[in-house]
Write a structure and sequence with these properties.
The chain is an alpha+beta fold. The chain has a single domain, classed as Sandwich (Immunoglobulin-like), CATH 2.60.40. It has 1 helix and 7 strands. This is Secretion system C-terminal sorting domain-containing protein. InterPro entries: Secre_tail. Keywords: Signal.
Amino acid sequence: MKHIYLLLLLLSCTLGFAQQSQANGDIPGFKLYPNPSLNGKVYIETAQNAPKEIIIFDVLGTQVLRTTILGNELNVSDLDKGVYILRAIEQKKTVTRKLVVK
């Protein structure tokens, strides 16, 4: 009997966290490509395609780029080769992804 209660508790917690993640979290339809970036440009697509604030951090957490894009093209040619953290904010929703620049 205890096993059934434990299973139900875990199931309800999992469903609760999944719904919370969808309500507060990711931007619907978010796509970042090409990753790794080879030509100094990356493209960011979303379902709504609204203006996006883009913040890029290096691996030490230092902000190296902050811009707003109206379309889907982001110029990263000023960044050195390496691994970065990209944060995109669109209509109060945020997504964070790893970005590799080669």
